[in-house]
Amino acid sequence: MKLTQVFKQLQDILQGIEEVKLVTWWNRQDNKTIHAAPALFISFPDPLETETLNQQVQLAELNIRILLYSKLLENKDGSISEQAMIKHEAIAQKVYSVLHEQSFSNDEGNVINAMERNYYELDMDQNGWAVSIIGFSCVAYQQEEDAAYSPYPKPPINVQPR
């Protein structure tokens, strides 16, 4: 399963969120300078354990993490602006809204069934950043490459939640 294709489809969807300045791969940016915020980072945290169906289709549970970074400025008393947190959580809700129940496919026989949110965490220990980690799970299907060249008709891919 080509995660670069899944990444690109997610990136295209998430770039539609008006307030977001950057959508890219997660690469431990918390240890580096983030130049554009709010920013969304896409991560695939778990290995894919595949099963083969009909000797032509593989499936695997796919876990996706979207990390939302928003810059927080402290008030003079060290507190965080409530308005900044409201904006941060509004973007997190938009991420959920655009990805919940989202499914997609491409011309190479890759299919992602309806994505379900399975995790949410708000991390305020990032020194000037609010970080929301929004997790989704789905089942990914891929037509076997050898099957693409088979002279026999391909069976339809039945995309049903597990």
How is the secondary structure organized here?
Blueprint: H1 3-14, E1 22-25, E2 39-43, E3 50-53, E4 57-71, H2 82-99, E5 104-105, E6 110-112, E7 116-123, E8 129-143, H3 145-148
Parallel strand pairs: 1-2
Antiparallel strand pairs: 2-4, 3-4, 4-8, 5-6, 6-8, 7-8
Give structural notes:
This protein has 162 residues and is of the alpha+beta class. The chain is built from three helices and eight strands; from the N terminus they run αββββαββββα. The protein has helices spanning 3-14, 82-99, 145-148, and strands at 22-25, 39-43, 50-53, 57-71, 104-105, 110-112, 116-123, 129-143. Strands 1, 2, 3, 4, 5, 6, 7 and 8 form an eight-stranded mixed sheet that branches. A hairpin with a 3-residue loop joins β3 (50-53) and β4 (57-71). The two termini are 18 Å apart.
Can you give keywords for this protein?
3 helices, eight-stranded mixed beta sheet, 21% helix, alpha+beta, 162 residues, 8 strands
